[in-house]
Structures are given as structure tokens and as C-alpha cells.
Amino acid sequence: MGLRGRLFASLYDRLLASAEEAGFRARRQELLRTAKGRVLEIGAGTGLNLPFYGSDVQLTVAEPEEPMAKRLAQRLREQRPNSELVHAPAEHLPFPDAQFDMVVSTLVLCTVADQARALRELRRVLKPTGKLLFIEHVRSDDPKVARWQDRLNGVNRFIAYGCNCNRATLDAIRAAGFTVDSLERGEIPKAPFFVRPLITGVAESN
To answer: Looking at 138-166, which runs of residues are DSSP E strands?
Structure first.
């Protein structure tokens, strides 16, 4: 990772701070209180989800970007020293089949290089009837906003280090063979209008 990647990692928490304080942190907490058993979090970034896992969760976190992983490792030492950190992208998870009860993805599926492959990997490492817990910003259902997302996606990818603001992620989750058990639509507070549309939910691996 070059200078841009190191800079993005150093600024990541500050870039999200206003959204976290305006309600996004509470959204994370509400979703992750349901996590249980052996849990894998992909693209764990700097570890903003760590405070919200229960003490009985057996946690593994995956992060492919070294500057992010360094910050994540420090938070793991401070908050969850018994957790495992692996340096791996969601498209290439170094685990045998059917290893996890749950997989967590928060603001990750917008950035993975190959979304369909990543979702196939998540299904592969989940146990039968395992759960995917997700919070993802997505393509808007409003055609006007969606057109702006398409126009601005290149700019967004540059500013947000590869983040796509126009992915139809819910459709991709279903196409990968997951059954969506619960879904809530919302917005990322304090975010630009073209990255605001948000989905939060739970999907089951069949």
C-alpha cells in the first residue's frame, strides 16, 4: 500500500467520527449484539466494531491492508486480546469450509475488488444456516440519486480509497444464495447524499 493508503488509514476514524456520533455507532451496536458463537469479521479496518461483541464471542478479524491492520492489531491487544487477526481479503479467506457461525460485514462490500467472489467466500466459510450480519451503503432506489451515484463513483473511489457508492449490494447478497431474514433501510448520517443510502440486515446461508 502506498502513501494514499497509509494516509487513508490514518484519517479513517476521523472521517467517520461525525457519522458515528450521529447514530452510526448505535446502528453497529444494535446489529452486533446478536453476534454469537464463532464470528468472522471481514475488512475489519481499524476495529470500530470491537466494543460491541459480547464476551462469549470467539472472534476472528480479517483485514488485507497493512496500515489498517496495524491499527486493528493495537485495538485487539487493548480490547479483545484473545481474538485472531488474519491478513486476508474477503475474496481469498484462509479458512476451511463451514468454520463460522456468523460473518460480519460493515462498509466492506462497497470496496472489495470482486463482490460476487467475496460473497461466495462468505457462504463457503459459514456453517449451514450460518448468518451474515451486514451494514452497507448501496445504490439508491431513487433513480435521480442513482444517476448521481454513477456520475460521481469515480470521484468517490479516489477519495474513499476504492469505495463504490453505486453497488446494488442487496441484490448481490441474494444472488450469492443468501436468504435475507431481516432488512432495514436507512441513511448514513452526516454523509454526502450520494453515499447516504444504507441497508442493515441479517441473511442466512442456505
So the answer is: none
